[in-house]
Amino acid sequence: MPQSNFTSHNWESFLNSLSSIISKATPDYPSTRCWSRKSLATIVQKIKRERKLPSTFPNTPEILTHLKNIGWAYKLDVDPLSNKTPPSKDFYLLDITAAHEIKIDPLELMQAYKPKGIICYMSALTYHSLTSQLPTQHHIAVLVKPTKTYESPKTIRKENKKTFTDKKSSLGDLVFNFQNQPCYLTRRSQSRLVGYQTRITGPRTRLRLTTIEQCLLDTLHKPICCGGVPVVLEAWQEGLPRIDEELLTSYLLQINYPLYFRRLGALFELLDYTPGGDLEKTIALGLESFDQNDPNASIALLPGFNFPTLNKKWQVLTP
User: Fold this and answer.
1) Whole-model pTM?
2) Contacts of 297 (CB under 8 A, 6+ apart)
3) Whole-angstrom Cα distance, residue 39 to residue 317?
C-alpha cells in the first residue's frame, strides 16, 4: 500500500475518528485500550462508512500494520489454542504512549473479547477480594434465555448425580490463554444471573462483573468454576460481613431456586451466621420444597462434591 494513503486528508480524518472512539470507555466499548482484531475490523468499517472514505482506503490489516509502525498499536501476547487459531482472535493494545512492557489485566482483556459480557466466577471473586487465592482461570458470561425450570424431583436427582470428571465441559469454552491462565466463555441463563454492575477502573476501562452477592450465590451453583471447595468456603467467610442482605434476598426471590434456599440455610448454620428477618424468612421457604421423608431428597452443599455430614433440617450434605 503506497505510503501516501497514510498521509492524505482521508487518513487524517480516519485517525480523528479513531482517536475519538478510543479516548474513553463507553457501554458499547468498555475497554478502549484493548481490542480484539474482530472488534477493530468492525470499528474500521464503521469509520469508513461514516466518513465516506473511498474504496481505495487501506483495509484493516494494512491499517493495523501502519498503527504498529507508528507506535499506536501493540500486539498483545495471547497464547493461541492452536496453530490454526484465526487472526480474528488476535488482541491489540491501542495507546499512543504505550510501552511494550505495559501490564494488561486479564479481566480487561476478557471484557475486550466480549464487550457485552459479564465477568464472573473466580475472576469476580478475586476482583472483590473474596479469596486470597490467585486466580487459576477466568470466565466471562453471555446471557441467554432460560430453557428449563429449576426445581423438580428430577432436577434434584440429576444434580445429586453430578460429577466433574469432564472438567473441560464443566468450565465452559476455552477461548484463549493469557499469562498462563485459561480464559473461558460461558453461557448463563438470564434467570440465574441477575446481579451485576459496572466498575470504572480507568478513563478507558470499564468492567461488567457480578456483584458480591451474585458471586457468592454462583459458588453454590458452579463451585469448580469458582476455584473449588477451599475457595468457596473462604469466599463466604470473607463475604458474609460485607453482604447486603436486602440485595441478596432480592436475588433469591428473583432467581426462585429452592435448592439455593436449602444450601444457604445449611451454610449459614455451618458458618454460625444468623441472617436478618427478611433473608431468614426467604431461606425458610426452602423447607417447604422437599419431603423430609424422601430418601432421595438430600443434596450436596456444593454440586458434584460428596460431603460426610448430613444437616437433617435442610437435608444438605456439608463438609
Assistant:
1) 0.88
2) 156, 290, 291, 315
3) 46
